[in-house]
Specification:
With 185 residues, the protein is an all-beta fold. It contains 1 helix and 13 strands. The longest helix is centred in the first third of the chain and has 4 residues.
């Protein structure tokens, strides 16, 4: 499976595009909150996303990561469907590594909050019925005290100049980048 990575900076709002159709979940943060919520494709994004200081939206087709800076949003898109952010001058082709990996977040529940030691503050998952919310159609794990994320790793070649004693030289290599694919039981 091949992918594309693109970035755009100084955006006045989160980027729009067809890639949102492949996104089913978002983790977003503000100065006082970190939340995860399921997403359904719509032309209008939920206000919580546009008002967040940083976030990550993901699904089977793409992942969008953003940070709000003084000059506007900085966004990076990884897409398995060839989508590229508008305004990106130099998209990068990615090669998927073998199989996706599984990452578990374990914690203790208190209402709709998951307390996980590796996350420095409470992590609100969903907003309904004081339970961990998974995207629609996903079965809950029996203990309801963990989240399992499916993560896909990609590689891409890079070339970078560096200063040596005898002048400028070039380093080439493979860089690795990961993308959240989905939440699973």
């Amino acid at each position: 499976m091949a992918g594309m990575m693109s970035e755009a900076q100084r955006l006045s709002s989160l980027p729009s595009g067809e890639f949102w159709q492949g996104i089913t979940c978002a983790v977003f943060e503000s100065p006082d909150n970190v939340r995860m919520m399921p997403l359904t494709y719509s032309e209008d994004l939920p206000a919580e996303l546009n008002n967040s200081s940083a976030g990550l939206a993901f699904g089977p087709g793409a992942q969008l990561r953003w940070t709000k800076r003084d000059a506007g949003y900085h966004a990076v898109l990884i897409s398995d469907r060839g989508h590229v952010l508008n305004g990106c001058a130099d998209p990068c082709a990615l090669t998927a590594e073998a199989e996706p990996e599984h990452v578990f977040l374990w914690g203790r529940r208190a209402g709709n909050l998951l307390f996980e030691d590796r996350i420095p503050r409470e992590f609100a998952v969903g907003v309904q019925d004081a339970s961990l919310l998974y995207p629609p159609g996903t079965q809950l794990p029996p203990d309801k005290s963990r989240l399992r994320l499916i993560v896909q790793w990609y590689t891409f070649p890079y070339t970078r100049p560096f200063m040596a004693e005898d002048g400028v030289r070039t380093i080439t290599g493979l860089a690795h980048v990961s993308r959240w694919v989905r939440v699973a039981p």
